[in-house]
Amino acid sequence: MIAVSDLRYRYGDVDVLDGLTLSIPDGQYCLLVGPNGSGKTTLVRHFNALLTPDTGTVTVDGTDVTDDPVVARTRIGMVFQHPRDQFVAATVAADVAFGPENLGLDRDEIDRRVETALDAVDLGGAADSRIDALSGGEQARVAIAGALAMEPDYLVLDEPLVGLDWPARESVLDHLDALAADGTGIIVVTHDLRDLHERADRLVALQDGQVVLDASPAEALDALPDLGIRDPRC
Amino acid sequence: MLSYRPGSTLAHRLDPRSKLLVQFGLAIAAVAHPTLPWLVGTTAFALGTLAAARLSPLAVLRSYRVVLAVLALAPVVAGVALGPPWFRVDPALRSALHVGRILPVLLVSAAYLTSTPVRDTRAAVQRLIPGKPGQILGIGMALVVRLFPLVLADVREVRDAIHARGGEARPLRDRVRLLAVRSLERTLDRSDRLSVALRARCFAWNPTLPPLSFDRRDYPVLAVGIALSVSPLVPV
Amino acid sequence: MATEQSVDLVDDDTVGLFTKAVLLAALTAALAQISIPLPGPLVPFSLQPFGMFFAGLVLGPLWGGVALLLYILVGIAGAPVFSNANAGLGYVIAGQGTGGFLVGFLVGAVVAGAIAHRSIAPKPVAALSVPVQVVALTAAVLVVYAIGIPWMSFVTGLPLTRAATVMAPYIPPDLLKLGIAIAIVQGGYLAGR
């Protein structure tokens, strides 16, 4: 379980997170929504100690993530908005291997994890492809595979669908469904709920650094326009 | 341009570390003695490396034609005199001999480039340089190779955007300043995103090193590399 | 097999400096491919020195040096990063007699960084005084020629004075680049970094 307690984080003169409390149980498919500047990205970057709280705590199964960032970053895989800026190698398999290499695993284990991760996103045949030659949707899937190779319990995706066309979007979402069905917790940060609200278990809306809505997506939809988020049914 | 081509020649099958040593060793040896017999010897050796990579010497010379054409001007420049006899042969010959020493270095580096993928050189650097410097340079090389095309596209986009808004009409100073500053900003934005991504993936000082295998056939090559590196100590 | 406890994470500040060095190496490579044709008999105006300028000012002597060293290493490894998409150790040593200028850029970045920051750890560019930055950039250009011209003389067998004469046409554009770099510093365009 990821547990966030009374988290505060200031950037310049702004309270980006203003005493936020939230917990996400294992295996949940959770949407994190809110207008720009509501603190979504800042919040998830605390989950794996990419940011350090001013006050408050973030724990994963009881361990404070700032005490053990390696465990936090292994258990919580993160995929960012601009896949092209997060790849470290020119070819697919070399990039996916980067995380496991940092864990110091032996080569056979790394190869096994790369193969499993690429199979999970249906890119098993593209191991030796050049990343820049892939489509946007395939690049997003390579980024997901890079996170999966750490064998995380949770996958956090920050605006993973921006700039993808409809088929690529559907394909990425279908792969997330399959991972969720296998028990991986999925946390999607987004301001666009189209195609997402039927898939998730839970919707958490942020505004000004606080949780203002926490419900099942079906229950939450009617309240969204008041929060400045488009109702995906319209 | 010369670049890596997959293949199974002897040069392809060697470990990049022994190839790097031979390449640097030959460069040291080649410039050590500007004499004709020495030049003939190093050139013959360099032709041998081309054979090991199954490269045609003529094709290699053709791909270096701009470099060679400019270098060939050096003896002419050296020989020109500002008074009678207007051209002096001795300094021209001396320069020709100096420039000639460069030829084997260029040939061997062609053999290396075409037979060694960039990731192998990166792996060699990471393994040859111990500790943190090796890790920084090894991973750094992989990242630069990965990001260079993206940054080049950024810079071209910035240049085109300046043109599209009538930038040619502005003085050169302004154009260059805009291009340099805007390109730098975009580059550093990429750096911020990359650094978060590296941290999220546990970027560590002590990762599993990229695989390389030093084979039995690499030992004689290694010995040749060492011999070349110390050859300037041999009196000629 | 190593356990996860033994993972020695690179600290956050170092990751930030490292990725900046990587990106400035890529920027140096990109700028080396861009040149602005000038009218008449003038040599084309290459933007390559700006990589050295920025690396020294933004990153200081150590990481600025790492940036230029990475640039040269990926070129030796075969990436087409030198002017006109050249690569290889042969090009670093010889070039068109101009190989020494690549090494000059490396030393120039270290010298500019050392003068501007006077410590290994870089300060924010806004904290550097403008006159010191001007001195740093000027010194970097002098270093490039101080290494490039003797190197050319060594490679080509030309006497030093003659090698210097051959390079003379490049000096006015390089002074112009220095002036532009100084204008960038004085205009505060790097102050956010």
From TrEMBL, chain A:
SUPFAM superfamilies: P-loop containing nucleoside triphosphate hydrolases. It comes from the Archaea. It is found in: Cell membrane. One of its GO terms (molecular function) is ATP hydrolysis activity. It holds the Pfam family ABC_tran. Keywords: ATP-binding, Cell membrane, Membrane, Nucleotide-binding, Translocase, Transport. Residues 2-233 form the ABC transporter domain. GO terms for cellular component: ATP-binding cassette (ABC) transporter complex. PROSITE patterns: ABC_TRANSPORTER_1, ABC_TRANSPORTER_2. Signal peptide: none annotated. It is a peripheral membrane protein. The keyword Transmembrane helix does not apply. Belongs to the ABC transporter superfamily. Probably part of an ABC transporter complex. Responsible for energy coupling to the transport system. This is Cobalt ABC transporter ATP-binding protein. It comes from Haloarcula amylolytica JCM 13557. The lineage of its organism: Archaea, Methanobacteriati, Methanobacteriota, Stenosarchaea group, Halobacteria.
TrEMBL record, chain B:
InterPro entries: ABC/ECF_trnsptr_transmembrane (IPR003339), ECF_transporter_component (IPR051611). The chain crosses the membrane at residues 20-46, 66-87, 99-115. It holds the Pfam family CbiQ. The keyword Cell membrane applies. The keyword Nucleus does not apply. CDD domains: EcfT. This is Cobalt transport protein. It is a multi-pass membrane protein. One of its GO terms (cellular component) is plasma membrane. It is found in: Membrane. Keywords: Cell membrane, Membrane, Transmembrane, Transmembrane helix.
Automatic annotation (TrEMBL), chain C:
It comes from the Archaea. The chain crosses the membrane at residues 17-38, 50-77, 89-116, 128-155. InterPro entries: BioY (IPR003784). Pfam families: BioY. GO terms for molecular function: biotin transmembrane transporter activity. It is found in: Cell membrane. Keywords: Cell membrane, Membrane, Transmembrane, Transmembrane helix, Transport. It is a multi-pass membrane protein. GO terms for cellular component: plasma membrane. Belongs to the BioY family. This is Dethiobiotin synthesis protein. It comes from Haloarcula amylolytica JCM 13557. The lineage of its organism: Archaea, Methanobacteriati, Methanobacteriota, Stenosarchaea group, Halobacteria.
